[in-house]
Amino acid sequence: MNEQQRKKALDSWKGKKNNAQGHFFEGFIKTACAVYKQKGIAYVEKMPEPFMVLEKKDRGIFKGRFIAHAQPDFMGTLSGGRSICFEAKYTSTDKLAQTVLTAEQWDSLEQHWKAGAKAGVCAGIGNVYAFIPWPVWRSMQEIYGRKFMTAEDLEPYRVRFNGACMFLDPLHPDVADWTPTTAAVIEKQLQDLGREVERAVGEAAEIERLETALQTVVGVVTANRLFEIIRREPEEKHAAFLKTTLEAALGGADYSACQTMDDMAEVFARNFVERAWGG
After folding, report:
1. I need a labelling partner for 106 at 20 to 30 A (CA). Which of 18, 58, 147, 221 fits?
2. Model's pTM, two decimal places?
3. Measured between alpha carbons, how far is 240 from 49 in angstroms, rounded to an integer?
């Protein structure tokens, strides 16, 4: 067996292993569905995979293949009337990528969640099982800074496992269920954070522009000394100090002898008076 054949055989073995583990995981979830149904907690079903008939044969036999489907793996209703839908994803590696969902699966969970369903991904990483709320899954980049989750990331959303993956029995109930209302609050916080970052980036760019201009007007040595003085002040005042100093320098103010903020204030005040009288 050459290297190419060995790689092909290994890939085939990995694929069969992953499929088998995925079926085992779905079996754990189906067992939980049966328990919840018996106790009247929820009625949740595994959705059949749609297939396409390729060839019809005698005695009701046909040849076909499974096709991609848009609806989630599991759907049902919780006691009280709220609907539930989720995908089941398992990996034996150390991380579960956001991209394991197809565009169709993503859109379906998004729409169900926006309509008020308990939507998410029932995930397994090794022997850690969790129900990841949809707003967490969809916001991995914003929450974790990456588009995958580790077993450690799953911990807040971990569920009880007793031979069945009890997806409605979180070990940490206080963080387990995110409603659209909760998610809207989180989304607003993320948007506010984004605006703060944009504002900080804008301020940094403005400060850089003002510092460059001041170096051009008063010279690098004097400007750097003024920067040192200004940076001793509260950060939120830096841009304002640079702007007024630059305006005064453009108007002829001489800051070359300044050693303190009081010195700079005196130069600015004197220049202001001179310009006012000159006007």
Report:
1. 18
2. 0.57
3. 63
Residue 21 and residue 16: Cα distance in Å, rounded?
Answer: 9
191 burial class (0-12, 13-18, 19+ CB within 10 angstroms)? Answer: exposed
Q: H-type helices in the chain, by residue range?
A: 3-39, 103-114, 134-137, 140-144, 151-154, 173-176, 180-218, 220-230, 238-250, 261-278
The helix/strand/coil state of 218 is: helix
Provide the 3-class DSSP secondary structure of residue 85: strand
The answer to whether the CB of 87 falls within 8 A of the CB of 80 is no
**What distance in Å separates the CA atoms of residue 1 and residue 133, rounded to the nearest whole number?**
46
Q: What is the pLDDT along the chain (279 residues), one digit of tens a residue?
A: 666 655 554 444 344 445 556 578 999 999 999 999 999 999 999 987 655 545 666 666 655 554 555 578 899 999 999 999 999 999 988 999 999 999 999 999 999 999 999 999 999 998 999 999 999 999 998 888 999 999 999 999 999 999 899 999 999 887 666 554 555 556 666 677 777 778 878 888 888 999 999 999 999 999 999 999 999 988 888 888 899 999 989 989 999 999 999 999 998 888 888 877 765
